[in-house]
Amino acid sequence: MRRFSSALLLAAVVFAVLAIAGSPLPPLYSRIGGLIPLEETQRQLQAWSTAGGFIRYAYSTWIWAAGAVALSSGGVLARHAPLVRHLLEVRPIAARILTPLAVLVPALLVCSVPPLVLAAGGFPQSNYLRQDWSLSDVIVYAAVPWIITLMAFGTYATGIPAAVRASGSRWMR
Fold this sequence. Notes:
This protein is 72% helix and 4% strand. It is mainly alpha-helical. A two-stranded antiparallel ribbon has the order 1-2. The chain is elongated, with a radius of gyration of 19 Å. The model has no long low-confidence stretch (mean pLDDT 82).
């Protein structure tokens, strides 16, 4: 588990460096088409490389930072695996709910709060792309990650009592 936690923490450092540098997101593809087309990534990389100043930011900064926070939280939990295992034995339902929340909530806060603060403060969406905030941008960037996570976590959490019952543990603690 130490190697796994070290790998997670090393990946968190890489994500943190990408966040601090304000690096654009790589192209993302799906079966229905490009979510972030290659041309958009190339345009953002060009703008990013020609921008002055040490710290550059765009919405990708908060996504990289959220990844760094999630990876570091997971690394810390993996480093303390015996404690997590003990918690799963003593309080199985609480542990199965709180452990994922210890990773998800800080990452979601890092992903959604800075765009709200920047928009409220009148700062641009990106200091190298020169994009201003629109109301829909703020709503999407702040609310959508929470909605998706709550839907997935709700589906996961509703199956926890049955899974604990099936494992033979005393689940009503």
